[in-house]
Specification:
The chain is an alpha+beta fold and 471 residues long. The protein has 4 domains: 104 residues, Phosphorylase Kinase, domain 1 (2-Layer Sandwich); 180 residues, Transferase(Phosphotransferase) domain 1 (Transferase(Phosphotransferase), domain 1, Orthogonal Bundle); 77 residues, no CATH class; 71 residues, no CATH class. Helix content is 33%, strand content 21%. This is non-specific serine/threonine protein kinase.
């Protein structure tokens, strides 16, 4: 916790930044939403750096290191990273204070989104496709984030793209360096417990593969709504997430490799993960878990009053061994011999539930027994319904011609297998039009000319790449 008192709403820092509200606080200071008076009331974020160290020498060293690390943030220029604006020295309650000033991103963190619902396999695959190029970029700049988690990923409101925020690991690295340089112990943790890999927690080391590890943990949390400690066996240092989450074998292999104990056993780059991610086909579009399950009991029931459900069995001519129940937003693996009395009549499987199960709040029930091509119906109990989730709008202001142009660009880029194609186009586009300040383009008419220019740049790059490939 910072030793300084918080800035009050309406107060001004350096007669320029007017405080709107406090966004959060931690061991290194507070974070504020402010408006930049000198930039037409633009919103921005002030991140205070106030390490718990005493003495002029130590503070001077902290300033030097923090400014050095701030210069690292300054050189990061990416549409999915908040722009760094300023490194600010100021006075707070008559004491020296250091601030980072960054762009404000309107949106919700993935931790906030997770409170509403869990994510589907299709959604996390899309998230990986969208955020891995960002990691590839920062790693190419010699930067490791060190603190990837649902709290540090935001979904930007304007375009629903993920944005990587809070390079808090930079501040923590600076504080660790202060401790080494001055001999004064400073308590710091490089990364969140459960998300950070062993080498980061135990040795303070971080590599590109360390970010990939934390990203894989983030995916497990988004899929399940559970905390990392629920998937991890500390005594054996192994993950056992497969007991709780069912995903395609291809995605499962990717997650397992990212979660390897040794950095050398993981993927070595974000680009490598993106390439392997192409093997994931037809990911499940339905969320598989409810982040806030309520216990529901199904016991000795009147089968005639149960609704009908479908499932697929591994081999309907033999004994059923396991049921994978996709009930509403919860997947449950249940041994059939403990649940069902089984009788075959004219190729129809008749099942009665004979034990109680607690599986969460449901609004519809569907059960599947893996990899059997014959569907069979059986009844399950009536269960309480969930409120309907809001549907995303599927309308668009774009013309069919423009949508077709987008689809053709996507098709050509996939055919080339260039995983960072869109990142390359963004770099070219924003370097050509710096007046946009890397803001995301919208579907509004006023952005139409810039969208067309973006397409032009994308198509020119595709022509060049296709030509190079044919040589």
């Amino acid at each position: 916790m910072s030793n300084s008192s918080p800035l009050t709403v309406g107060s001004k820092l350096e007669n320029r930044y007017e405080i709107v509200r406090e966004l959060g606080q931690g061991g290194f200071g507070r974070t504020y939403l402010a408006i930049d008076i000198n930039r037409y009331q633009e919103p921005c974020v002030l991140k205070e750096f106030a390490p718990q160290i005493q003495g002029a020498k130590e503070l001077q060293k902290a300033e030097e290191l923090f400014e050095r690390e701030a210069s690292v943030l300054y050189k990061l220029q990416h549409s999915q990273i908040p722009n760094f604006r300023e490194f600010l020295r100021s006075q707070l309650n008559s004491k020296p204070a250091l601030f980072l000033v960054q762009d404000y991103i309107e949106g919700e963190t993935y931790a906030q989104l997770l409170k509403q619902r869990c994510f589907s396999e299709a959604e996390v695959v899309q998230l990986l496709q969208q955020i891995l190029p960002v990691l590839e970029y920062i790693h190419s700049q010699g930067v490791v984030h060190r603190d990837i988690s649902p709290e540090n990923l935001m979904q930007r409101s304007v375009d629903k793209m993920p944005v990587l925020i809070d390079f808090g690991g930079v501040k923590k690295a600076a504080t660790t360096a202060v401790s080494k340089a001055t001999g004064q112990p400073v308590v710091t943790l490089l990364g969140k417990e459960g998300y950070a890999p062993p080498e980061q927690i135990r040795q303070g080391k971080a590599f590109p593969s360390s970010d990939l590890y934390a990203l894989a943990v983030t995916v497990l949390v988004l899929l399940s709504g559970k905390q990392p400690k629920e998937f991890y066996d500390n005594s054996k240092a192994v993950w056992h997430w497969q007991q709780y989450i069912s995903v395609s074998p291809e995605l499962g292999k990717i997650l397992d490799k990212c979660l390897a104990y040794k950095p050398s056993d993981r993927y070595h780059s974000a680009r490598e993960v993106l390439q392997v991610l192409l093997t994931v086909s037809n990911p499940n579009p339905q969320p598989i878990a409810n982040p806030n399950p309520q216990p529901v009991t199904a016991g000795n029931l009147n089968i005639s009053q149960m609704p009908t459900l479908n499932f697929v069995g591994r081999n309907w001519k033999t004994n059923v061994t396991q049921v994978i129940a996709n009930v509403g937003r919860t997947i449950v693996k249940l041994p059939a011999k403990k649940l069902f009395g089984v009788k075959f009549i004219a190729n129809t499987l008749k099942i009665g539930v004979v034990v109680a199960v607690g599986v969460g709040a449901w609004n519809l029930a569907q059960a599947e027994l893996l990899k059997l091509p014959k569907k069979i119906s059986f009844p399950l109990p009536n269960l309480p319904s969930l409120p309907s989730l809001p549907k995303l709008p599927n309308s668009t202001t774009l013309t069919k011609a423009e949508l077709d142009r987008q689809a053709e660009i996507m098709r050509r880029s996939k055919a080339l297998g260039v995983t960072d194609f869109y990142t390359q186009v963004d770099r070219l586009f924003y370097s050509k039009y710096p007046e946009l300040k890397r803001r995301a383009l919208t579907e509004k008419p006023e952005d139409a000319k810039y969208r067309q220019r973006w397409y032009d740049i994308a198509e020119d790059l595709l022509d060049k790449l296709e030509k190079e490939k044919s040589i």
